[in-house]
Amino acid sequence: MLPKRNEVPVKYTWDLTRIFKDDATFEADYKVTEDLISKLPSQITDSAKELYDGLTQILEATRKVEKLYVYASMSSDVDTSNSHYLGLFARCQKLFNNLSEKISFLEPALLSIADQWEQYLTDYPQLRDYQLFVERILDKKAHTLDAQSEKLIAQAGDALDSAENTYGVLTDSDMEYGYVQDENGEMVKLSDGLYSILIQSKDRNVRKNAFDVMYEAYGQFGNTLASTLSGVVKKHNFNSKAHHYKSARQAALAANNVPEEVYDTLITEVNKHLDLLHEYVALRKKILKLDDLQMWDMYVPITSQAQTKVDFETAKKIAQDAFAYLGEDYQKHVDHIFNDRVIDLVESENKRTGAYSGGSYDTDPYILLNWEGTLDSVYTLVHETGHSMHSYYTRSNQPYVYGEYPIFLAEIASTTNENILTEYLLDHETDPQSRAYLLNYYLDSVKGTLFRQTQFAEFEEKIHEADQNGIPLTREYLDKLYGDINQKYYGDSVEPGGAIAKEWSRIPHFYYNFYVYQYATGFAAANSLANKVVHGSQADKEAYLGFLKAGSSDYPTNTMKKAGVDMTKADYLEDTFNTFAKRLKELKEIIE
């Protein structure tokens, strides 16, 4: 039985009274914020001073809404059955929507003064506080239509979103999976969650049957799912063409000011190093002693983990020892997160599942966990601590307007921490079985993130190009394209053909508009940064801390260059492939 919320020891709960002392204080601030939003101006560009004052008011209101939202959502997350906090959360969502509607004029208004912007900076130098914020919007001017055209495209939004919405309804609600036999011989109804467990089963028949039943369900709707994916690709291509981009990819990357060379370099370099993935897959085939390695064999563990449980106090000690590479200041602030009720630790009834790092500019960088006491739990702890420390350093060193890091950089600090932990554990672990587990944990991470997400990125690029060139995205075309790319990535050790060609139909990320490549670039950048932190100079460590402090004060690829990683070049990817090769070699030696 899971404990109820009031049965969880207080020391393992987060202290939200540091955000608002109590609900009454929240309500008072809510009323102040409502009033602030109602008084926001609807025109702020008649003069340089008016623009400065207007931006200041808008940012102040946004900052207050975020703090309210965090308090309500985090209060609800620890007990999703609590109707009071569900109500507060719903009210904060409404407040956020009201703010969004109130300031919807801002971007068009700023674009209208693009030709006057330099003069405004001269007339009122305080505007330089918001210079990059404004110029990020002005960068879009060449791709922004007249007001009437933009309004028309916005009004077509519901129609353009219908393919994506249909996919969500079909896969979340209407699609029925069949029954499979689990490891205990029981017939159970398959679900996405159960599939992720059964596909790792030591019993090959169990994982094969789970695979077959899963893809049989998707196969029944193959034509429909090809139609929904085609619809969302057409939407991306339409929007990019309407806004004068040469491709949907260019439009999507421009939203984060990411040069297209980053995408091209990723795909080129991963393809150059597919031999490493092939070698790893061949090792899997050898360890599993299979004559015919299939895609349903790709997730069963090939090394065993020591069954020792890791309590939270031990995990904190391991993490802090690993963080010694990052210096005393970093460790001091981690100590606050670990020991001053910034973490909500224990799984309890009706608590949100999973883990995240949350908070706002004016709060602690809170962490939600559901502690299981495994090595995976330790990795989750250092991962979320990476996010929280990124947030802490950003908020401590940047004004509110630049006090959040861009999505392109979001996973880098967290994954850097994971890589630092792996380095630390390998430096201190001598038991061959434990070393094999750690080495394979890293290799599987590279396989699942750098290689697999680049595979997705390559497929995503090709289907957008095909639609742009007038090629219909039929079920047969998508199956053939995906199957060929999958075979190229996994190599001759995997049996060709089979239902894996349908995998495109169950990947929701293909509806996210060129998002998945960021998982791959972020992972490789984090690997390179961790190598610099652990094995590099003091200047390398300072450059990394500078990255954590930068927030959105510069374009993301510039921020990475200052940290020592040029993501338009191959070096950071080569660094990851070298580490992969070295650890694969050691794993093979241990196994032999």
Give the helix/strand layout.
Blueprint (H helix, E strand, L loop, with lengths): L22 H16 L9 H30 L5 H20 L3 H7 L4 H7 L7 H8 L8 H9 L1 H4 L1 H13 L4 E3 L5 E3 L2 H7 L5 H17 L1 H21 L5 H7 L5 H13 L1 H15 L23 H11 L5 H12 L3 E2 L11 E2 L9 E2 L6 H23 L14 H17 L3 H37 L6 H16 L26 H19 L2 H13 L5 H8 L7 H21 L1
Parallel strand pairs: 3-5
Antiparallel strand pairs: 1-2, 4-5
Helix pairs in contact: 1-2, 2-3, 9-12, 12-13, 12-20, 14-20, 15-25, 16-18, 16-19, 17-18, 18-19, 18-23, 19-20, 19-22, 20-21, 20-22, 20-25, 22-23, 22-25, 23-24
Strand order of the largest sheet: 3-5-4
Structural class: mainly alpha
Distance between the termini: 44 Å
Computed CA radius of gyration, to the nearest angstrom = 25 Å
Beta strand count: 5
Task: Extract low-pLDDT stretches.
Answer: none
- Whole-number average pLDDT? 94
Q: Roughly what fraction of the amino acids lie in strands? A: under 5%
H-E order: HHHHHHHHHEEHHHHHHHHEEEHHHHHHHH
Task: Please estimate the helix content.
Answer: 55-70%
Shape, per Cα inertia axes? globular
* Main sheet record: 3 strands, mixed
Question: Can you count the helices?
Answer: 25
